[in-house]
Design goal:
alpha/beta; seven-stranded mixed β-sheet
């Protein structure tokens, strides 16, 4: 059984003022081409299909066209879940029609897909709240999916009741997952968890969320889900939310972030984007590989101390999206700024870094503006509060505000 794992499409997302829709059309077509070339049996999408709860008409159209092509008239199953950028109701809205094409979309942790069968051979064998068992065309082995769309506090209270609302989310989810695994996930099928969450190994190094990614604020202040909370009877965990592609762990089975298909913030500059192709067979460990994506513009952060040097580099790299820092002892003139923008259409921002202390009335100017916004905010807060650092709650709030569209 061949399955393609992808996530965090963020259709409709912009990089500051710069639209990425043309790039998104290209990379969506590339993902479809990979699914067709590799003859995959199913495609699983781990959340954040859109970038906003109210996406543009163009983003909605791109999503529907991509899902329809991936499904190939029901010959290939396509399963998608809502992420923390998505409206669960909007994700589920086309479900009755989408099912007829072999596309299954769930927005809530308690969503249940009705049983149905298509002429292509695709069939829902069993279904429960947060669980789906599929018979795929050309496959005799069933595919079981534990589905975990993004779960915030309100949704968990609605689903699980007030008595469980204050428990750590990881404990609540572990109990829920284990119950589904015990009931449905034996060794006669391929068992996968598809989720949008922040997952890490307990005691391991914490992966940073992207500087413009909305932080996941969860029940009981438990932001992390640990790999040890996942059921042992799975063969693979397909995750979304973090935009860097990496494996959280490989034993007892792979727990993998597919990553986003495009670099969506300057903190992702230099990352190779990809999708994950996995091959699963009953009685054997899942094998997986990353397939690199080639569409979309690369991001770059560059610093220069002369405008002429910046102009030369920009002329030599016309296809990049650039955050440009100019280090100078004087202010950047309007003429220089206009000149730079005129020779390169992909300049996202120009950051002047003044070294002349007299111009800034003797204030400290040794500021590394290539650092991320959270670090710069911490420095600013300390400068205004006698060296005191902002607490965790304030930093979470700052990240959430930073992630919102202007």
């Amino acid at each position: 059984m061949k399955i393609l794992h992808t996530a965090d499409w963020h259709l409709g997302k912009r990089l500051d003022h710069y639209s990425r829709l043309a790039e998104q059309r290209l990379v969506m077509a590339e993902i479809c081409e990979i699914a067709e070339r590799e003859r995959v049996d199913a495609v699983i999408i781990a959340g954040d299909l859109y970038d906003h709860i109210n996406p543009s008409i163009e983003a909605i159209e791109l999503l529907y066209k991509t899902l329809k092509r991936l499904a190939a008239d029901g010959k290939r199953a396509v399963i998608g879940i809502a992420g923390n950028h998505d409206s669960p109701d909007r994700i589920e809205a086309p479900d009755p029609l989408a099912r007829e094409c072999g596309i299954l979309l769930t927005g809530y942790p308690h969503s249940q897909v009705p049983e149905f069968a298509l002429d292509s051979g695709l069939k829902v064998l069993r279904s429960a709240a947060g669980f789906l068992e599929l018979q795929l065309p050309q496959q005799s082995t069933p595919l079981r999916l534990i589905l975990t769309p993004y779960a915030n506090e309100v949704r968990m209270k609605t689903y699980l009741g007030e008595e469980n609302a204050e428990a750590a989310l990881r404990e609540v989810l572990q109990k829920h997952w284990q119950g589904l695994a015990d009931q449905y996930c034996d060794e006669q099928g391929v068992n996968i968890l598809l989720g949008h969450m922040f997952c890490m190994e307990k005691g391991g190094e914490r992966e940073e969320e992207g500087e413009d990614e909305k932080p996941i604020l969860l029940v009981g202040s438990a932001q992390e889900i640990y790999t040890q909370n996942l059921p042992q009877s799975l063969h693979y965990a397909a995750l979304g939310h973090l935009h860097r592609a990496f494996a959280v762990c490989k034993q007892p089975y792979p727990v993998v972030y597919a990553g986003s298909p495009l670099s969506y913030s300057m903190s992702e500059a230099g990352q190779q984007k990809s999708v994950v192709l996995l091959e699963a067979e009953v009685g054997k460990a899942v094998q997986y590989e990353r397939i690199s994506l080639t569409q979309g513009k690369a991001l770059a952060r560059k610093s220069f101390d002369k405008v002429d040097e910046a102009e030369k580099w920009l002329s030599e790299n016309p296809d990049l999206l650039v955050e440009l820092t100019l280090i100078s002892d004087d202010y950047l003139t309007a003429e220089d700024r206009k000149r730079l923008y005129s020779i390169h259409s992909g300049i996202i921002s120009i950051i002047p870094q003044i070294t002349n202390t007299e111009l800034l009335e003797g204030k400290a100017t040794d500021i590394d503006l290539s650092r991320n916004m959270s670090e710069l905010f911490t420095d600013y807060f300390q400068s205004k509060n006698a060296g005191q650092s902002p607490d965790e709650k304030l930093m979470d709030l700052f990240k959430e505000v930073l992630a919102e569209d202007e």
